[in-house]
């Protein structure tokens, strides 16, 4: 018989208690480790998202500031072709005129000192000046015909009348236009207005290539800005005979014929050219 009072506890209970203690202790130790690892991963993920946001913001291109258009102030002696060339305007004087048409007006040859022109961009619509008289209405342009009159007199060229005689403006040294302009393209045939003798034919400074005729009544006719001259000094011509071709030589903003009638051969002796032609039976 086994000894009295001495009983052995089953081994299974001790084993279960040991496992329970180990399991409890292991869980207590494991939980902080799992929490630390998860926190570290979350912090790393947050830092990565923040870094991507900063990189995206840095990569986004910045908008370039819009460059303000440049302006040019007209000075005495300026004309559109000269300004366009010196200021390197793409499109030349025609683009410069188109962009500033409202400021310049209907005639590109009339630009006054002090006028501000926009270079390379459409100019803003100018504000109406205060206390300024309303501009005079321009008469509609007439299409002139160069058919010789019954008396042998004719117009100098077939084309529309542009800048009229005595148009005022500071761009002319006399303060006004000393002749009349005919708006015609380069290469248009020019005619002697009546029987005459060629006084000069060649370069004429600001007038470019020019021909000056002494008419049979003693008056002088001047043709300026020619692209080609067909006569020579001393030659006699009849009314309607071709003397050259229109062009854009000299001080001009575009091709046209500048025509004058003078009482003498020199500048400053001008008279109304259209009135003179009408007096000789030419219909205008």
Q: What does this protein look like?
A:
The chain is an alpha+beta fold and 284 residues long. Among the domains are: 70-119, Roll (Membrane-bound Lytic Murein Transglycosylase D, Chain A); 160-279, Glucose Permease (Domain IIA) (Distorted Sandwich). The protein has 5 helices and 12 strands. Strands 3, 4, 5, 6, 7, 8, 9, 10, 11 and 12 form a 10-stranded antiparallel beta sheet that branches. Strands 1-2 form a two-stranded antiparallel sheet. A hairpin with a 7-residue loop joins strand 11 and strand 12 (270-271). The relative contact order is 0.11.
Concise summary:
The chain is built from five helices and twelve strands.
C-alpha-based Rg, rounded: 46 Å
User: For this structure, what is the CATH class of the domain at 160-279?
Assistant: Mainly Beta
Strand content: 15-25%
Secondary-structure element series: HEHHHEEEEEEEEEEEH
**Count of helices?**
5
Q: How is the biggest beta sheet arranged?
A: 10 strands, antiparallel
Structural class: alpha+beta
- Distance from first to last alpha carbon: 160 Å
Overall geometry: elongated
Q: In which range does the helix fraction lie? A: 25-40%
Number of strands: 12
CATH topology of the domain at 160-279: Glucose Permease (Domain IIA)
CATH superfamily of the domain at 160-279: Glucose Permease (Domain IIA)
Mean pLDDT: 76
Low-confidence segments, given as residue ranges, are 18-36
* Overall CATH architecture of the domain at 160-279: Distorted Sandwich
